[in-house]
Design goal:
heterodimer, A: 199 residues, mainly alpha, Four Helix Bundle (Hemerythrin (Met), subunit A), B: 461 residues, 2 domains, 19 helices, 73% helix, 0% strand
Chain lengths: 199, 461
Amino acid sequence: MALPQTVPFIGWAWDDLIFLVLAGLMLGGGLMVVLGRDIIRSGLFMVLSFAALAGIYVLLGAPLVAAAQVLIYIGAISVLILFAIMLTQSKAGPSNLVFHHQSWAGALAAVGLAVIIIVVVIYTDWPGAATGVVASATTLIANLLFTDYVLAFEVVSVLLLAAVIGGVFLAKREDSPDPGARAVDEPTLGRLPAPRDES
Amino acid sequence: MTVIGRSWSRLTPAGKVLLPLLAVLLALPVLLVVGWATGFLPWLIGLLAQVLGANADIVRFLLAATVLLLFTVPTAFVIIFMEMKLIAFINLRLGPNRQGPWGVLSSTLHGLKVLAKEDFTPTGVDVPVFTLAPVVVYLGAIMTIMVIPFAPGLFGLDMDIGLLYFFAIAGMGVIGLMMAGWSSFNKYSLLGGLRAAAAIISYEIPLTLAVVGVIMLAGTMSLNQIVLQQAGSALDWYAFQQPLAFVIFFIAATAEAGRTPFDLTEADSEIVAGFATEYSGMRFGFFFFAEYVNVFILSALTATLFLGGWNAPFDLAIVLNALSVTVDPTIDPGSLGMGLLWLVLLGPPLVVLLLALPFWMLKSDWSFIKSLVVGFVLFNVVVMALIGIWAYMSFPVVAGLFWFLVKTFSLVALFVIMRGTLPRVRIDQLMGFAWKWLIPAALVNIFVTAAAILVIRSGTD
């Protein structure tokens, strides 16, 4: 869909306006993630921040990256993080985030990162305007991924597979083959004691 | 408190909506007259026309979005009615039969009832999250309609990455369910939300992996192109080239839509409707609205990917040729001349009489008026059928839409029949089935498809 040149009444270019809105949403969401008191809301603001970033990718003419961003960061990673928070937190528990005890260290780290990024941005020799946005980048990305960068691709796959196997091993280690057959008196970490027969 | 405030607080929620609307309706003529007399209105209309003309694409986008939103309402109503009737049939009950003939209005009235109910926010909930959750769920459902091709040339957007977009947006709905489950401040809701997250994350993997075979065969992720690749007869559908993927996709879609036998997320007998426990009024309605829209969308996607989308299962022209029937659907009313006038004047009454007479003669206890009414209804049915056949023959869009809806609603009926017949699985069975059976089967399907493509292509080269 082609947008007209300028926004009615304001006179800006559409791209600028949309970029400003999306960037504002992204930065605001990111700030709310670290400043919020409620950890679930922090997680939801993180989703908002990811979504705004996906919008910026679309604006830059990379819908494939945007779709991957939504699919992986929102659909999988954020959901898993929220899932973990919901399993471990409760509303009766402390509402203070653990980050709030480390706010000075966090602020120092943020400033340091900002300085590094600014230095990198200033001293990088940026290419000028793009020679033209490719309308359909899917085939190009697929070709590159399976020819020039196939080694990196496979290495990442193996790394992820190792992570998955390691995770399963860590989660499975303490379990007996059949949870129902566990001895009653065996103390289990983090579990409620099995009901005793008092009669 | 003033009299007005007291009266206002006594109104039902529906009244609180209707009364301001009535006031607006009464004030509108006055405002129009004043605006026209002062010349403010013509100036405003001129400005509006100028702005709209300069931004035609935005206007088109807003119109398309509105049409999309409105389209989901009758679809959900039809599916809800279908579900009530079909499950009643399976259960040897009558089902809804009071609102309209055969109860066809019952789901509409259900919708109005839900709209008029009190929208209650319980104590202790996380108010913004609680309020936003149904919106996120509903948006996640309807934004996916955009890429589904309904008929040749009838789709929101033919995206290059349509399928990826579909899965990305469909995965966002689960965040809404988790928001609802968490913010409700209720252990059943939390369990429902967690179950929804676990089930949808697990079943998204086989759902996506099953489609990879189709993408490899079609060579594209654009849904429109995938439909075009399946053109021809029913044997060209991917359901026959990818039977395993078809089965996996359908099972995973059932879980993704949260339908029986995988409706653990709302299992009303275990966790009292799960994430929706604390919701009331239209916010509760939105969850189930979204669920039925989801059923429609997943059926539509299954039809698009595996059952040829809007392609007809057979070519009508070949069948007609085999029967040596020639039909020329082009109608030229001008060639009739004065006969057209007589046809328009005398045709309908004569046909109505013709259809009414047998009833009047055969049913001795029917009055002539009653048989006339029945004749009129029959006449309308016949005319609608004739117009439908003519449109089917003349416009590929109508034919495509017809086959697409037939396939989609057959799959919806399958979903409903499954709900009426299958028992609910346990949560560990649900997860085990996805990880131990569906995902390996989907991976095998990918390897077999890739090998088959390699063998066949190397044979032809």
